[in-house]
Design a protein that fits this description.
With 681 residues, this protein is α+β, with helices and mostly antiparallel strands. The chain is 16% helix and 40% strand. Strands 13-14-15-16-17-18-19-20 form an eight-stranded antiparallel barrel. The protein has an eight-stranded antiparallel β-barrel with strand order 27-28-29-30-31-32-33-34. An eight-stranded antiparallel β-barrel has the order 35-37-38-39-40-41-42-43. Strand 2 and strand 3 form a beta hairpin. Helix 2 runs antiparallel to helix 6 and helix 2 crosses helix 7. The radius of gyration is 36 Å and the shape is flat. The two termini are 63 Å apart. 28% of the residues are buried. The N terminus is likely disordered.
C-alpha cells in the first residue's frame, strides 16, 4: 500500500529547508517562463492530483467502495474461509473463493481493527463492522479522479527560489509521493518556492498505450485524453464479450443486402445461431475470435445453410453496438455491418440460453444428506427448478435425459425429474430437451451440471465437538472481529453444563450440541452475565479443529472464534482468583526473593486494596483487577500509594494457584515472582 501520510511533512520540510539553508549551492539555469511553472491551483496541478490520487476502485471486491482502499495486509473471512490479503494480487484468491460459491450470496468479514486509505491518502482507523458500514454510507467518491492514465515513474521537479535559481531537484517514484508533493506546493506568485516539471514525461493509458510529452500543455492534453483511451473496443477480449451480449442484426451485406435483417446469436461454447423469417427458422454453426497480423478476426464456420457467411471476417471498425467486418473473397472485398439489438428477441430459446450462460459452471447443487451414509456423493435433485422461469406449458415440451444422444432422439426421458437421485459419483450432467409445441422439429438441448456438496464444511461430528469442548478451558478470542470477551473462561464440565467465569462473575449456563445437514450446531442457554450473554443462541460450526472452533450464528450475522487453553487445565479461572482474593486478607510472603511478609493486603470488592503492616502503623492504598490474558489469568496491582511495598506495582500472570497460595510472575520479567499466602486470621 501507500507510504504513511506523515511523509508529507518530510517532503514539504525539505523544500523549505532548501530555500532557507542552501542558497550557497544554487545552480544557475535559464529561468522558466510562466507556462513552465506549476501553480498549486492551476488546471494542470489539479489534473495531476486527480491522476495520482489513491484509486479506491482497485479493491472494490474487498470493500465495495470507490472512496478508499483497505490498508494491506488485512485478514478476512470469505464464505467461511480465513485468509490474509498481503497484496492486491492476492485479491484473485478472494475472487476464486467467491467464484467457487454455488450461490450469488457471498459473505466477507474483516478481522478488525483495519485501516482504510482515502482518495487523498488520509488514513482512518476502523474498529468494527458498524463503523465501516456507516463510513461507506456517508462516503462520496471523488468523481474527478482519473483512473485511465498513470505516470511512468520516476519523474522529477526542479525547485527554484524567487530569483529563478535551482535550489533542489525532487525525484518522485510513485502516485503517493506525487500527490503529497502537489498538496505541498505554494503559489509562486506569493513569493514562495517555484516549481517546474522536468520533461520528457510519459503517460500510460489503461489500454496499454504510452504517450511521451515535452511540456505542460502537452501533458495537460494527454491527461484530458485519458477518458478516450480507457479501453480499446477492438481488443480481442472486448470483441468476444461484446458479441455475446444481446444479439446482432445484419444491417448491411455487400451490395445486394441478401441477408439484411438476419439475427446472429454468438452463444457460449462457440455455438452460432442465425434466426430469420417469421417461423422463426434457425441455422446453426460455430464461431470464434482470434488475432491475425494484429487485427481481430471473427471466424464463422460449419453453417448448415448460407455458407456464404462462413470464413474469416476482419474487424475493421468497432463500437459497442456496431461492427464493420470485411472479408477478402477472391478479388472482391465483402463488407458486412452488424448492429447490436438488445430489444425484442426473436429467438424462442433465448431465456434458456441466458440461464445456461449465467450458470455456465455448476448450476444445481444439493447437500449430501439423502441417507445416513455421509459423503457418499448421492443427492436428491429437483431438475425442474433450473429452467422453470422459461418453461411455458403452451409453448414448450421439456424433457430431461441422462445422455445427449437420448435428448436429441427424445427417448428414455427421466420419469420423475422433480425427485432425481444421481446415478453416478461424482454427479453427472443432465441434458434438457426443449422443443416448440407448434413445431416439435424445432428444438434445442441445454445442460444441467449436478453437484453433490458436503454441507458440513467443518468435517467434525457431534461426538468430536463434545469431546473437544470438555478438554481444558475455552476462551472467546474473537467475537465479530474483536477480543472483548477473551477475559471469560468457559469450562464445559459435562455435555450440558458450562461454567463461565471472568470479569468478576462466575455463572453456570447450559449448552447442547446437535447434528444437522450443514454441520454441528452448538446452542448456549441461560448465559445471564453482562457482555458474555452475547454468545446465547444457536451457532453453526464452520471450521472445526481440536483446539479452535469457528462459529456463525444461525439467527443473525454474528461470528465467533473459540480457542482451547490447556495451560489453565486444573488451574484457577479469573473468577476463581477474584473469589479467593476477596475471601480473606493475603500476606505478601515474598517479592523477587525478598521477604515482604510484614505486609498484608486486603482486596476489596470495588477493585481497591489496602496494604498495611499488622504490627505497625503504615497503611497504603492500591488498585487491583483480574482478567484472562493471552498466557493465563492476569492480576494487575497498581497505584500503590507509597513505601517500599510500591515495588509490587505491575501486571502478573498466575503460575500456581491453590486455595491457600498464589504464585504470580511479572509479565515483563518472570524473575520478579510475587508470592501471596492467604491469612484468614
Amino acid at each position: 500500500m501507500k507510504q504513511p501520510i506523515k511523509c508529507i511533512f518530510l517532503l514539504v520540510g525539505i523544500l523549505f529547508f532548501t530555500v532557507t539553508a542552501c542558497q550557497d549551492e544554487v545552480i544557475e539555469e535559464t529561468p522558466p517562463n510562466d507556462q513552465e511553472i506549476i501553480q498549486s491551483d492551476s488546471n494542470l496541478a489539479n489534473l495531476m492530483r486527480n491522476t495520482s490520487a489513491n484509486n479506491g476502485s482497485v479493491d472494490d471486491i474487498l470493500d465495495g467502495s470507490d472512496c478508499f482502499t483497505v490498508n494491506l495486509p488485512v485478514t478476512i473471512v470469505a464464505n467461511g474461509i480465513t485468509l490474509t490479503i498481503e497484496t492486491l494480487t492476492d485479491l484473485s484468491l478472494l475472487e476464486a473463493i467467491f467464484d467457487a460459491s454455488n450461490t450469488d450470496e457471498d459473505d466477507l468479514d474483516f478481522l478488525f481493527p483495519i485501516t482504510i486509505v482515502l482518495n487523498d491518502y488520509t488514513e482512518v482507523n476502523i474498529d468494527s463492522v458498524d463503523t465501516l458500514e456507516a463510513f461507506i454510507d456517508s462516503c462520496i467518491a471523488d468523481e474527478d479522479l482519473i483512473e485511465c492514465a498513470d505516470f511512468v515513474y520516476p519523474i522529477s521537479f526542479s525547485i527554484y527560489n524567487t530569483s529563478f535559481q535551482i535550489i533542489d531537484t525532487v525525484v518522485i517514484d510513485n502516485d503517493y509521493e506525487l500527490y503529497i508533493f502537489l498538496e505541498g506546493l505554494e503559489d509562486g506568485n506569493n513569493g514562495a518556492v517555484l516549481t517546474s516539471l522536468n520533461f520528457p514525461v510519459s503517460i500510460q493509458y489503461t489500454n496499454g498505450t504510452t504517450v511521451e510529452v515535452a511540456n505542460n500543455q502537452a501533458l495537460e492534453e494527454a491527461i484530458n485524453a485519458a477518458v478516450d483511451n480507457c479501453e480499446d473496443d477492438c481488443e480481442l477480449e472486448h470483441v468476444s464479450e461484446n458479441l455475446q451480449e444481446c444479439h446482432w442484426v445484419i444491417a448491411a451485406y455487400n451490395a445486394n443486402n441478401d441477408y439484411l435483417g438476419y439475427h446472429l446469436y454468438f452463444n457460449e461454447n462457440n455455438l452460432l445461431q442465425i434466426i430469420f423469417g417469421t417461423g422463426p427458422v434457425t441455422v446453426g454453426g460455430e464461431w470464434f475470435t482470434s488475432v491475425v497480423n494484429g487485427s481481430v478476426v471473427v471466424t464463422i464456420s460449419a453453417l448448415t445453410d448460407f455458407t456464404e457467411l462462413e470464413g474469416d471476417w476482419i474487424v475493421e471498425d468497432c463500437d459497442d453496438d456496431r461492427y464493420v467486418l470485411i472479408q477478402e473473397a477472391g478479388n472482391q472485398t465483402v463488407e458486412m455491418v452488424l448492429e447490436q439489438d438488445c430489444s425484442v428477441n426473436p429467438n424462442p430459446f433465448a431465456c434458456f440460453e441466458e440461464v445456461q450462460e449465467i450458470n455456465a459452471n455448476i448450476i444445481l447443487t444439493v447437500c449430501d444428506s439423502t441417507d445416513n451414509i455421509p459423503n457418499n456423493g448421492v443427492g436428491l435433485f429437483d431438475l425442474t427448478t433450473v429452467y422453470n422461469n422459461c418453461e411455458s406449458p403452451n409453448q414448450f415440451n421439456v424433457s430431461y435425459h441422462i445422455s445427449e444422444t437420448n435428448a436429441q432422439a427424445n427417448v428414455n426421458a427421466i420419469a420423475n425429474p422433480g425427485a432425481y437421485l444421481n446415478a453416478s459419483v461424482p454427479a453427472e450432467m443432465i441434458y434438457v430437451r426443449v422443443e416448440l409445441i407448434s413445431n416439435t422439429s424445432n428444438f434445442d438441448v441445454f445442460t444441467i451440471d449436478l453437484f453433490v456438496e458436503n454441507c458440513n464444511p467443518s468435517e467434525c461430528s457431534e461426538t468430536d465437538v463434545d469431546a473437544f469442548l470438555q478438554e481444558c478451558i475455552w476462551n472467546v478470542v474473537n467475537f465479530n472481529g474483536d477480543d472483548h470477551l477473551i477475559m471469560y473462561a468457559l469450562d464445559f464440565v459435562s455435555t450440558s453444563e458450562v461454567i463461565i467465569s471472568g470479569n468478576g462473575v462466575t455463572i453456570t449456563a447450559s449448552y447442547s450440541t446437535s447434528q444437522s445437514a450443514n454441520g454441528v450446531i452448538v446452542e448456549f442457554i441461560n448465559v445471564s452475565a453482562a457482555n458474555i450473554q452475547a454468545i446465547s443462541g444457536e451457532w453453526l460450526i464452520v471450521d472445526c479443529q481440536e483446539d479452535r472452533l469457528q462459529f456463525e450464528a444461525l439467527n443473525n450475522n454474528n461470528t465467533m472464534v473459540m480457542e482451547r487453553d490447556c495451560n489453565n487445565a486444573g488451574m484457577c479461572t479469573p473468577g476463581d482468583v477474584e473469589g479467593m482474593l476477596l475471601d480473606c486478607e493475603w500476606t505478601v510472603t515474598s517479592y523477587a526473593g525478598s521477604d515482604f511478609s510484614m505486609f498484608n493486603i486486603n482486596f476489596n470488592a470495588n477493585n481497591e486494596a489496602v496494604i498495611f503492616m499488622p504490627n505497625g502503623t503504615e497503611v497504603y492504598t492500591a488498585n487491583w483487577t483480574v482478567s484472562q490474558g493471552n498466557n493465563g489469568v492476569e492480576v494487575v496491582i497498581s497505584n500503590v500509594s507509597g513505601g517500599n511495598v510500591q515495588i509490587i506495582n505491575g501486571t502478573y500472570t498466575v503460575v500456581e494457584c491453590t486455595s491457600e497460595q498464589l504464585i504470580l510472575h511479572d509479565i515483563t520479567n518472570s524473575n520478579n515472582e510475587l508470592v501471596l499466602d492467604k491469612d484468614c486470621n
